[in-house]
Each structure stands twice: as C-alpha cells, then as structure tokens.
Amino acid sequence: MKTRLRNLRQTPALRNLVREAALAPTDFVMPYFVRTGKGVRSPIASMPGQFQFSVDELVRECRGLKKSGVESIILFGIPGRKDSRGSGAYARGGIVQQATRAVKDAVPDLLVMTDVCMCEYTDHGHCGLLRGREVDNDATLPVLQKIAVSHVEAGADVVAPSGMMDGVVGALREALPRTTILAYAAKYASAFYGPFRQAAESAPRFGDRATYQMDVANAEEALREIDLDIREGADIIMVKPALAYLDVLRRAKEKFGWPMAAYNVSGEYAMVKAAGERGWIDERRIILEILTSIKRAGADFILTYFARGAAEWIT
C-alpha cells in the first residue's frame, strides 16, 4: 500500500481541517509608539505604515484595532524631555501613563501591556542608570520597580520589562505580586532593532547594549535566562527577535511548557515592507507565512506590527 500524503491537500477546506498551526486575530499584540502633543500621527520613515501617535490619535487607532479582532497592545513612550535618570518613565503624568489611562477609558476591554525600560527616557539612551560609562544593574532595579508600579496604577494589565537587567523580574514581582509580568527573558543584542530605535528615539549615545542583551550565538544561555525569569515569577516568557531565533523559541517551549511570546521586530517588518514595495514578494502571503512559522515554533502569541492587517486578512 502506498501512502499518499497529498490526499490531505486536495482542497482548501481539507487543508484547513488538518492544519497544525492556525492564526487568529487574538494571537497578535500590536506595538504602538506614543508621544507628547495633540493630533500627532507622524510617519516612521524606516517602518512604512507605522506612526508615532499622540494620545488622542492613539485612542482613535485603538478603537479601529479592536474592531479588527486584535485584543492586545503594547505601549512604548517617547517623552517630551529626557534626563540622565529617565525620570519621565515613572512620572504620574508620563506619556505611557497618560496613554494607558486614555486607552482604558475609551476601549476598556483592550488589554494594555507596557514596556518597562529606561532607554527612551534617558539622555544617554541606555536601559538603566550609569556608573561612568557602564549600566549599574542593581541601582537600576528600584527605578524599574517605580516605572512598573506607575504603569499599573494608570491601568496597565501587563508589564513587560525589556531592559534585560539581571533580577528585574524578581524586583517587579516583589513590587507587584498580583500583576502579570511578560519577561523579555531571551532578548538578543540584535541588528534587527534598528528601525525601532528610530521609532522610539532610543538609540544609545555611546557604546552598545551587548553587556546586558544576549549574544546572538547563544541558545543554551537563553534557556538559563528563561529558567531564572520563571523562578523569579514571570508569567509569560518572550523570545526577541522572532525569525532568527525560532530554534530558541521551540526549545524553550519544549523544555518549560510556559506561556510563550515572540516579538516579530522592526527590522523583520521593514525588510518585508521594502521588498513588498518593490514588487519582489507577495507581501500578504509572506506576512502570513512568517506569522504562521512563529506560531508553529511555539509562540502562544506574537507581538507584531503586522497585527491589524493580518487580523483583517484572517477574518
């Protein structure tokens, strides 16, 4: 008897019945960049179709997003003023705090995640307090606690510490015992973040982040990072970026069985958009194939700038 695997591929309906990894709008988290001002919808040159929004425009955008079926967002703030200590990150009237309150008032059933980091708020662009030209890991932890608490007080549902300080999950868990923590546990020092740093205006003024983000060559280290964050109290684990690290995502899902997220980052987005604009690829098919590969590798949900478009195509 001959086995004919083609028999299960004969029609779209049949393929749908046996599909192993299916996408849904609720699988996506839409990242937004929010800045001071009113009526601001400023295009991001390196990320076609993405914008920096003022709070009023963000609320309008979120209403449309919810109608597409996407139920979650993550906010990145661009303050009006920066200083060496990133004090705008934890101000009660800070930009993310304002945006969180406004979105929760306008679209209360939209889940709001917030980025807990300092790079957008410091005048040096690093993710923590400096001692000389080095980031002082332990001195930064209380500041990250203050930022996370201020976000939760504004209405955030999930806090996501992205700065890769050792011990940050434990510090946030101590300060917020009942808040959901999405840990950037395996965040690599990646060249794929370039467009994001333009969008968030967060590029470091000197040096790089290689001492606190992970070496791109290491997978075993990622598993150790993930294990530590789970032990410290993380509710969800993230791998970032997604595409170049699908192996890490799969290994982490198999080893820990923990809720897993992956971030389909700005550089991945920009490359697809650039090739699509030139007609080199079928952009829609490529996007859905990329997102499906991330889901297939083990992600329970995906942070992606393609969220709204993909959700509308799926539905």
Describe this structure in words.
With 315 residues, the chain is α/β, with parallel strands linked by helices. The chain has one domain: TIM Barrel (Alpha-Beta Barrel), CATH 3.20.20.70. The chain is 39% helix and 18% strand. The protein is built from eleven helices and twelve strands. The strands form two sheets. It has an eight-stranded parallel barrel, surrounded by nine helices. A two-stranded antiparallel sheet has the order 6-7. Helix 8 links the parallel strand 10 and strand 11. The longest helix is centred in the middle third of the chain and has 18 residues. It is globular. The N and C termini lie far apart (40 Å).
Write the layout of secondary structure elements.
Blueprint: H1 12-18, E1 28-35, E2 41-43, E3 51-53, H2 55-68, E4 72-78, H3 95-106, E5 111-116, E6 130-131, E7 134-135, H4 137-154, E8 158-161, H5 168-175, E9 180-187, H6 194-199, H7 220-232, E10 236-240, H8 246-256, E11 260-264, H9 266-277, H10 283-297, E12 301-304, H11 307-314
Parallel strand pairs: 1-3, 1-4, 1-12, 4-5, 5-8, 8-9, 9-10, 10-11, 11-12
Antiparallel strand pairs: 2-3, 6-7
Key terms for this structure?
315 residues; alpha/beta; TIM Barrel; 8-stranded parallel beta barrel; two-stranded antiparallel sheet; 11 helices; 39% helix; 18% strand
> What is the tally of beta strands?
12
Order of strands in the sheet with most strands = 1-4-5-8-9-10-11-12
> According to CATH, what is the class?
Alpha Beta
Instruction: Please report the number of helical segments.
Output: 11
Distance between the termini: 40 Å
Counting copies of identical and different chains, the oligomeric state is single chain
Strand content: 15-25%
How would the global form be characterised? globular
**Unreliable segments of 5+ consecutive residues:** none
- Arithmetic mean pLDDT: 94
Structural class by sheet pairing and helices: alpha/beta
Would you identify the CATH architecture?
Alpha-Beta Barrel
The CATH topology is given as TIM Barrel
Gyration radius, in Å: 20 Å
Q: What is the H/E order? A: HEEEHEHEEEHEHEHHEHEHHEH
What is the assigned CATH homologous superfamily? Aldolase class I
